[in-house]
C-alpha cells in the first residue's frame, strides 16, 4: 500500500459534487448580484470553491457551512491565502439547534447551491422547507440558489411562500435563481 493511499484512504476522499467547477459556477456572476462589501452565507459550501471565487469580488465576510468535514478543512486551508474575512463550520444543515447557534443574525446574501433537492430527497419535504425558512429568515437581501431543473418550480413556489420573488431566472439550464425579499 502506498503512502498516499494510507494517508488518504478512498473512503475518506471522495467527489462530493456533480460535474466540474465551471458548471457549478455557471451563471453566478452573470445573474446581477453584487458581492462587494456584502456578508455572505454559503449553506452547503462543500470545499469553498464558490466562496473563493466570490472572495475575488471583495465581500465584507464569508461564512460557509457544510457537513462534509474534509471539505470544510479544504476551505479553511484555501482561505489561509485569501484576504476576505471568512469562517467555515462543520455542521449538518438539518440540525436546527446547531444551525441556530452557528448562524449570524443576518446576511446580505445567502447561497444555497445545489443543496435543497438533496435535503428534500434524504430528509423529506418538511425538513427541506424548515431549512429553507431558517435560511430566508437570516437573509437581509438576496438569496441565490441552484437546483435541478425538474424541481425548480417547486423550489420557486417555496420561496414565494416565504416572501421572496425571483428577480433572475434566465439560466439556460433552468437551475440558477436569484430571489429578493418582497
Describe the protein's architecture and organization.
By secondary structure, this protein is an alpha/beta fold. 36% of the residues lie in helices and 23% in strands. The chain contains 8 helices and 7 strands, in the order H-H-E-H-E-H-E-H-E-H-H-E-H-E-E. It has helices at residues 3-7, 21-25, 49-55, 69-78, 96-102, 116-123, 125-137, 152-161; strands at 39-43, 61-66, 86-90, 107-113, 139-146, 164-168, 176-181. The chain has a 7-stranded mixed sheet with strand order 3-2-1-4-5-7-6, sandwiched between helices. Helix 6 packs antiparallel against helix 7. The longest helix has 13 residues, at 125-137. The radius of gyration is 16 Å and the shape is globular. The termini are far apart. The mean pLDDT is 90.
Poorly predicted segments:
none
The percent of residues in helical segments reads 25-40%
Strand composition percent: 15-25%
**Oligomeric status:** single chain
Write the element-wise H/E pattern from the N-terminal end onward: HHEHEHEHEHHEHEE
Question: First CA to last CA: what distance?
Answer: 58 Å
Q: How can the largest sheet be summarized?
A: 7 strands, mixed
Radius of gyration: 16 Å
Identify the strand order in the major beta sheet.
3-2-1-4-5-7-6
Overall shape: it is: globular
Number of helices: 8
Mean pLDDT: 90
* Main structural class: alpha/beta
Amino acid at each position: 500500500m502506498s503512502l498516499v493511499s494510507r494517508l488518504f484512504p478512498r473512503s475518506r476522499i471522495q467527489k462530493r459534487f456533480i460535474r466540474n467547477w465551471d458548471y457549478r459556477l455557471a451563471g453566478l456572476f452573470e445573474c446581477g448580484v453584487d458581492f462587494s462589501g456584502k456578508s455572505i452565507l454559503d449553506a452547503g459550501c462543500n470545499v469553498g470553491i464558490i466562496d473563493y471565487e466570490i472572495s475575488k469580488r471583495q465581500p465584507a465576510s464569508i461564512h460557509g457551512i457544510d457537513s462534509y468535514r474534509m471539505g470544510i478543512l479544504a476551505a479553511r486551508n484555501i482561505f489561509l491565502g485569501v484576504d476576505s474575512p471568512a469562517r467555515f463550520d462543520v455542521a449538518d444543515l438539518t440540525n436546527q439547534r446547531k444551525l441556530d447557534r452557528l448562524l449570524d443574525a443576518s446576511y446580505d446574501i445567502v447561497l444555497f447551491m445545489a443543496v435543497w433537492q438533496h435535503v428534500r430527497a434524504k430528509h423529506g419535504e418538511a425538513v427541506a422547507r424548515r431549512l429553507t425558512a431558517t435560511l430566508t429568515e437570516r437573509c437581509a437581501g438576496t438569496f441565490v440558489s441552484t437546483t435541478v431543473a425538474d424541481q425548480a418550480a417547486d423550489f420557486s413556489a417555496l420561496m414565494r411562500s416565504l416572501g421572496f420573488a425571483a428577480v433572475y431566472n434566465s439560466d439556460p439550464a433552468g437551475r440558477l435563481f436569484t430571489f429578493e425579499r418582497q
